[in-house]
Structures are given as C-alpha cells and as structure tokens.
Design goal:
There is one protein chain. The protein has twelve helices and ten strands. It is α/β, with parallel strands linked by helices. Helix 1 crosses helix 2 and helix 7 packs antiparallel against helix 8. The protein starts with a helix and ends with a helix.
Amino acid sequence: MKKIFKIIGWTVLILLLGGIAIGTYFYQTDPMIKAIVNNDESKLYYFPSKEMANMDELDYVESTLRVEDSIKIYTYQFNPTGENKANIFLIHGAGGNVSSYRNLIKPLTDNGFAVYALDWRGYGKSTGFPNYKGVMKDTEIAFQDFSSKIAQDSLKTIVYGMSLGGPMAIKITKDNQSKVNLLVLDGTVESAQSLAIDYAPVDYLKEKAKKSPEKFNQDYIGVRDIAEINNIPKLIIHSRMDRDVPFKRGQNVFNSAKEPKEFWETETEHIMTLRDLTDETIKKIAEKIR
C-alpha cells in the first residue's frame, strides 16, 4: 500500500512540475499570454509600424505637435478633391500608421471630405511608445489642433473611429458635443477589457479578464461612454465577417447609444467599408450631415 501511495505521490508531483514547466514555456514564448498575465497594454493593444508607405496619390500637409517634452506626434491634413463638404477627424486602428490607411482615406477625399488624421506616439514618425493613457492624450491634443484649424469655417464636423480608434472617437465626441455633428464607428472595439477577453488564447486568461474589468478598463470605455452622447447622429458599422473585432462588440456599442443612431451590418473585411462599399458609405455620411 505504501508503495502505491508513493507512486501516486511521485506521479502527481511530476504532473505538477510538468504543468509548471509547460506554463512557464508558453509564458516566455507566447507574447500574447505574457502580455495578458502582466496586463502589458503596450503589447496587448498596439501594433505600430515606423515605416511610412508612399502617399503621393493624396494631397496632404504634414505637421507635428508637441504633446510632452519627450513626445512629438505627427498629424496629416488631407485635402479634398473639389469643394469641401465636411471636415473629418479620423482616428485609425491599432496596426500600422496613417499611411497604412491611405486606401480608406482616399475614398473620403475623392468625394469632397477633408480628413485630419494623427499617428499616436510610437506610430509612423511620432516619437515614444504607445500606452492606454498616452494615445488618448495624443488624440485629445490633435483634436484641439484640428478644431483650431477649422474654427473659421461653417462646415460640419465628423469624428470617424476605426477599430481601436473607436473608443477614442467616442470619448472625443462625448467631451466635445457642441463641436461634433456626426460620429462614425467602423469595426469598433467595445472596451480594453473586451479586447483582452477576445484575444486571450486560453480559457483561464479569458476568465481572468472577465472577472477583472478594473485591470483593463481605465479612463475611457466605448460601450459606457457612448451612452453619454446626446442628440448627435451616430453611424455604427460592423461586419458579420469581421475576424478582428467580433460582431457582437459593435452591437453592444450600438445598443448602449442613444438616438439618433443607425447600425449598418456589412459583410466586408475588418474596417474595409470605405474601400469595398465606397458609394454606400459616402451616401450614408452625406445624409446624416444635411
């Protein structure tokens, strides 16, 4: 009997040590697991590129803004073809930089919209490294600059958020309701917590994220903040085919929003509405700013 207990004991110990070894291996080799365990926001949410693609097909002006002593961000004003119909403050997604979205900016400028876009810290030519509070600060400083540049015209103002830029677009609109005439969201993220849940590679980490919203959600939460936007029209776009941000996230944001609002269900790739459904998108935007 003692021999049996001894064998069982050694078996349990070996399995325990093996589990620890496997867990340690994945922790050290899988950056997503490591980021979720440590709640490392710089790895969880941001995938910047420093390499700028050619944007010669667009008519634009490049500028810089000093956010902090060590942080300088780059902004881009894309001029419309023909008469300007409205001014768009565009907040791009987690990957690449402004130039990565040139094929989504061009349909807007080709159809008479002026577009102002920024690269957060760490993206493109902007200095520093992205983090949850830092990218929001960059966006707020850029919106102040955008607002000052359009202060003398009487055109409508549109805040357009894509994917990870969605919660920031919501926060900017919530805090500047007298300045914004339309909020557009495409493939929007619901919250930082929802990202951790959706991208967690194992069930244990999904549950960890579900039970600890305070570790992920901080100063701005899209699904919460949108409920505080009054009267401003909202166009919320989400694709059923979206493999990056689940369809239900867009639905949740829409359900939290007050009227007037429209939910547009598409079947494009993630945030590719402007590329694949250009005419329909332009028509919907134009109708909402009349």
